[in-house]
Amino acid sequence: MTTAKYLVTGASGQLGTLVIADLLKKTPAANIVALVRRPESAAAFEAKGIEVRFGDYTDPASLEKGFRDIDRLLLISSSEIGQRAVQHQNAISAAKKAGVGFIAYTSILKADTSPLGLAVEHRATEADLAASGIPYAFLRNGWYTENKTGSIDPAIEHGAYIGAAGDGRISSAPRLDYAKAAVAVLTADAPAENVVYELAGDDSFSMAEFAAAIANSAGKPVAYADMSEADYAAALEGAGLPRAFAELLADSDAGTAKGALEDNSRTLSRLIGRPTTPWTETVASAIATRKAA
User: Which tens digit of pLDDT belongs to each residue from 3-62?
Assistant: First the structure.
């Protein structure tokens, strides 16, 4: 058990919450700091004895104050696509001024070569972090299985899971597995410095296989309907998504068809000390939860 002081940005988010929960298994609450933007997010952490600090990626002064006396920082990427490179640079600069000793950053799988539009800001942040002089680890997270299970309801309703991924394969794992990997890197007795971890699920699937798994668990017919990138973006926009976001999702599917989300290194399972959670298990769990609702 280490005595370092850890800080997790975006602590109240979906990934951050899981990271904090796992950190509590590895180190006392007194060693953990949760950085949040909103006061209403504080109570749940404070009830566990975790110090809460307030900071915003758009407010460098708040970040510098929040990062003081922190040994190891988990920089969870911002959700504000298009603004992330500047926001992350704010965090890196603040961490340098505050004397943070190590930063683990949640990037994207194969960030340096990925064709995904999502990778552009991650590449910029990786370059900024490498130039900062702060020892770092790039946690290049692959797809969360939840990214795909989130569309189960309309797939069952319409009997089709639409996309533009072709036969591309996705090596996904649930957020919990990625959270555990982040904690493993952060809490190592001596974290490996200036390293890259390509993190992905042990097993991969095509979207046709994913749709078949939904059908099997739901007991209803669901098939994968492959579309062009443009038609998929239009369908998403027609379903109510903002155009920019719809185009980003369609771009990610097009990148999937090119192999951007497949990885067979099993680095994730080695970090967490067990096989990654099978994607079929996450699908079945999501459908069971749906049926129970």
Answer: 799 999 999 999 999 999 999 999 999 999 999 998 888 999 999 999 999 999 999 999
Instruction: Give tens-digit pLDDT for 190-204.
Output: 888 999 999 999 999
Q: Report the number of secondary-structure helices (H) and strands (E) in the chain.
A: 13, 9
Helix (H, G, I), strand (E, B) or coil at 146: helix
Dist CA 30 CA 46 (whole Å): 11
Query: Of 143, 152, 148, which Cα lies nearest the Cα of 287?
Result: 152
Q: Walk me through the domains of the chain, giving residue ranges and CATH numbers.
A: 6-141 (3.40.50.720), 144-172+201-263+277-293 (3.90.25.10)
pTM of the model: 0.96
Q: How many residues does the chain have?
A: 293
Say how far apart CA 165 and CA 220 lie, in whole Å: 22
